[in-house]
Amino acid sequence: MPELPEAERARAQIEKVLGREIVAVDDRDTYVCRPHAPGEIADALIGHRLTKALRRGKFLWAETDDGPELGLHLGMAGKIVIDGEPHERWDRFVLEFADGSRMALHDRRRLGRALINPDFDHVGPDAAIVSRDVFRERVGRGSMPLKARLLDQRSISGVGNLLADETLWRAKLNPRRPAGELTTDELDHLRRVLRAATRDAIRKGGVHTGDFIKHRKRGAPCPRCATTVERATIGGRTTFWCPNCQP
User: Fold this and answer.
1) Do 4 and 161 touch, CB atoms closer than 8 A?
2) CA triplet 49, 23, 92: central angle to 5 degrees?
């Protein structure tokens, strides 16, 4: 499932088509383009150019020249494809440009989104750039398990299941620990580790490249101490951790 690193790589893809005039839009998929009717997004975008590609957490949007913003979300399996071979079944939303190029939201599971003027008021600060004080206030509170707090997109945005497990393993923090029990030093350490894990994942190609991720399975050894990892459901998500490194 795409998390912050995958969304950032998708944002970089969108940057490749900035400044190109939009001449056609395929917005016929009424589920991906909800609540818009077919042709509504096309009418809003044709004749405009994307001018800036932005991201907060897993949410993407692009500004246009004196036009509306285009919001995009990758869902569980989506990706942004520039100038790829058209795929009638899986290209859920497509922009075509005056120079003959195209940008598609390619999504086999049909869980991505495309919409005009998205509202991100419900989304917390981006996990990659959240400040120290804001992180302390939003993460270090309440009795919610730490893993669940990291996954709460209203607290901070962009952290998914794999990135959370990777980060907590690197930080040597137990995912079941109440978030409000962390000390200021522990919260500051967690924030630094989260940002480092995020940068590594962006550079290497996604959250699946993490040091701990290939050990997220029953009976696997911790890559740091060789203790058998434990598994549980925390915050509604399957969670793995090392009982020795993350007591």
Assistant:
1) no
2) 95
Q: What domains, with CATH codes, occur in the chain?
A: 4-116 (3.20.190.10), 132-241 (1.10.8.50)
User: pLDDT means per 10 residues in the chain (247 residues)?
Assistant: 92 97 97 97 98 96 96 95 90 97 96 95 94 98 97 96 98 98 98 97 95 96 98 96 97
Report the half-sphere exposure of 241 (CA within 13 A, side-chain side): 28
The single-letter code of the amino acid at 23 is V
Least Cα distance to 6 among 128, 138, 152 occurs for 128
Instruction: Write out the DSSP string of 56-78.
Output: ETTEEEEEESSS--EEEE-TTT-
Tokens of 74: 């990758």
114: three-class secondary structure by DSSP: strand
Helices (H) and strands (E) in the chain, counts: 6, 10
What predicted TM-score, i.e. pTM, was given to this entire model? 0.92
Task: Show which residues are catalytic.
Answer: 2-3, 58, 237
Q: Which string of b and e fits 150-185 if b means at least 16 CB within 10 Å? A: bbbbebbbbbbbbbbbbbbbbbbbbbbbebeebeee
d(CA 142, CA 149): 9
Instruction: Give CA–CA dist 57/2, Å, rounded.
Output: 11
